[in-house]
UniProtKB/TrEMBL annotation:
Transmembrane segments: 30-48
Domain DUF7575: 104-130
Alphabetical keyword list: Membrane, Transmembrane, Transmembrane helix
Segments of this protein annotated with the region Disordered: 132-151
A Pfam family matched in the record: DUF7575
Protein name listed in UniProt: Zinc ribbon domain-containing protein
Organism: Natrarchaeobius chitinivorans
Comp. bias (Acidic residues): 132-142
């Protein structure tokens, strides 16, 4: 399911940068990528008046392809590609600069992010969590301690 989510996030980011981040509920990055993309569109593409003055859709596409320069194509392609890669990695739970050892509390078995003790579901990926019985937790910690003591 995580791979499917990552592919969906990357695909949405190719269609519209920021949409993949919105899918994985990373709202700040969604706004940043969408803002970057729309700013680049305003800067590098011809004005709306020029495009709407043309008679057909084919002629407007020809106008856009003639007016955009190599630098504009590169910037737009880079933003789309970077947004797709970033959203896919974030959907897989691989944010840069973090490690699994930094989590102090319990982590979600599905996405690996830190959980809130009061909730019965993961607020990141909405996976329902089964309550841990105190006897099971004691047995698991006892088994782990016994394994550490054996040579």
């Amino acid at each position: 399911m995580t791979w499917l989510r990552a592919l969906a996030a990357a695909g949405l980011s190719v269609l519209l940068p920021g949409a993949g981040h919105a899918l994985i509920r990373d709202w700040l990055r969604a706004l940043v990528f969408a803002g970057l993309y729309f700013s680049a569109v305003v800067i590098f593409l011809p004005s709306v008046d020029q495009v709407t003055a043309v008679n057909s859709v084919g002629d407007s596409l020809d106008l856009v392809s003639e007016e955009i320069d190599t630098m504009g194509q590169f910037v737009l392609s880079f933003i789309v590609l970077f947004a797709a890669i970033d959203s896919a990695f974030r959907a897989l739970g691989i944010p840069p600069g973090s490690s699994d050892e930094s989590a102090d509390g319990p982590t979600c078995p599905e996405c690996g992010k830190e959980l809130d003790d009061d909730l019965t579901f993961c607020h990141w990926c909405t996976t329902r969590l089964e309550p841990v019985e105190p006897d099971e937790a004691d047995e698991e910690s006892t088994d782990a301690q016994a394994a550490e003591l054996k040579p």
